[in-house]
Amino acid sequence: MKIALLAGDGIGPEIMAQARRVLDALELPGLELIEAEVGGTAYRNHGHPLPGETLASARDADAVLFGAVGDPECDNLERHLRPEQAILGLRSNLGLFANLRPATMFPGLENMSGLKPEIARQIDVLIVRELNGDVYFGEKAMRVLEDGRRQGYDVMSYAEDEVRRIAHVAFRAAQGRGGKLCSVDKANVLETSQLWRDVVTETHADYPDVELSHMYVDNAAMQMVRNPGQFDVIVTGNLFGDILSDQASMCVGSIGLLASASLGERQTEYGTFGMYEPIHGSAPDIAGQGKANPMAMILSLAMLLRHSLGREEDALRIEKAIAATLEAGVLGGDLGGSAGTAEIGDAVLERL
Ligand code: NAD
Ligand code: IPM
Ligand code: MN
Fold first, then answer.
1. Domain Isopropylmalate dehydrogenase-like, which positions (predicted)?
2. Domains 1-97+260-352 and 110-252 share a fold
3. Using a 6 Å cutoff on CB, does residue 283 contact ligand 1?
4. Which of 144, 219, 295, 351 is deepest in the core (most CB within 10 A)?
5. Which residues' Cβ are closer than 6 Å to ligand 2?
6. ipTM value of the model?
7. Residue nearest to ligand 2 atom 9, measured at CA
8. Residue 330 pLDDT
9. For 75, what's the count of Cα atoms within 13 Å in the CB-facing half-sphere?
């Protein structure tokens, strides 16, 4: 079993170190770890945020564990050299089109949510975000119009097969959970969304046991705060899914808690090839201070073990250790506590 470890920038290496301790503690037989540089760090050392060698290591592994990328000092580079291009390049080059972002309340954390505890307690949603299309990957440019004004544009589009394959993933996920799927779009304004809605509705014919609903994204953002308990599985495009998942994280209590899996079609000897990462970024404001919450990173490792390595029991062990750590009140600054990155790692290991 091969795992590529891409720690990245900012808090990436700090939280990766804690995930690494958890992985080591599991003592998986025959495990090979390959570390590679990515993001601003890779740009500085190799002139590119996603060096060919890093992409090759990722491709060659059974799974990729990814920290975070992003560096304020790189924000004015040409776009193709910015750290964020590394993550987009990995997702598209590896065909990882299905991004699973679960947001579930942890017992004892209801009071840390931005919502009232009785509302927060009900949150148990899986956001299925399409990851290889949408306005992220359309034609884009900054240009000067004939009258001299500057204009920026980014083309939003989805082809029907791109929508269909993510719809299948979401319907199957709903079958394995509460049997409810809510498709989020902006079909009242966007043609891209109208196609999305049509194709999701067509695909529903294969899943009569799933209850399908559609919601406009502005309403969905409101409903996520008003009554998140109404959602079971949400399926949505790349941009809306990015935004709604950060929002869902605060319903749970902190962005430092939400993990994700990015999957495609490739099967390995042990499961589905995938890349696993926290939904948050490199948090430059707290980087290097030992303050970052490593839980999203450690929970991403649990997802890796489940989906790519077929080790459900190890995944559950990790998830239980995290829940027990939170329940014991070992909280990082993001949750109003004072535990540092390594201290949280210690507490999780103790309970593992
Ligand atoms: P961010 O998620 O990095 O940080 C937002 C806020 O949340 C900050 O106040 C940060 O301190 C806090 N935060 C995030 N993760 C935390 C953790 N584990 N523990 C405690 N607090 C945490 O978002 P941003 O500030 O908008 O972006 C910073 C950089 O990260 C940018 O360059 C951005 O492009 C990049 N980014 C990368 C990814 C990724 O690698 N997957 C995701 C989002 C943003
Ligand atoms: C995420 C991030 C990325 C995204 C950025 C860094 C490209 O925000 O993984 O949520 O927008 O997908
Ligand atoms: Mn995001």
1. 2-348
2. yes
3. yes
4. 295
5. 84, 87-88, 242, 279, 281
6. 0.99
7. 279
8. 97
9. 4
Which positions of the chain have pLDDT values less than 70?
none
Distance CA 179, CA 213 (A): 11
Say if residue 143 carries a ligand binding annotation.
no
- Name the closest ligand to CA 11: 1
Assess whether the C-beta atom of 286 lies below 6 angstroms from ligand 1. yes
Pocket perturbation via mutation, ligand 1, pick of 282, 330, 331, 341 by most ligand atoms within 8 A of CB: 282
pLDDT in tens, 204-226: 999 999 999 999 999 999 999 99
Domain boundaries, the chain: 1-97+260-352, 110-252
Q: What angle do CA 18, 23, 28 make, to 5 degrees?
A: 170
By DSSP bridging, strand 63-68 and strand 272-278 are parallel
List the structure tokens of 211: 């209850």
Interval between CA 299 and ligand 3 midpoint (Å) = 17
The domain 110-252 is classified under which CATH number: 2.30.38.10, 3.40.718.10, 2.10.70.10, 1.10.287.3510?
3.40.718.10
Q: Which residue's alpha carbon is nearest to atom 4 within ligand 2?
A: 242
Residues 234, 237, 238, CA angle at the centre, nearest 5°?
115
Residues tagged active-site: 136, 186, 218, 242, 246
Q: Identity (one letter) of the amino acid at 38? A: V
Q: Which CATH architecture has domain 1-97+260-352?
A: 3-Layer(aba) Sandwich (3.40)
Residue 191: the pLDDT is: 98
Q: How much is the pLDDT for 114? A: 83
The rounded distance, in Å, linking the Cα atoms of 22 and 298 is 7
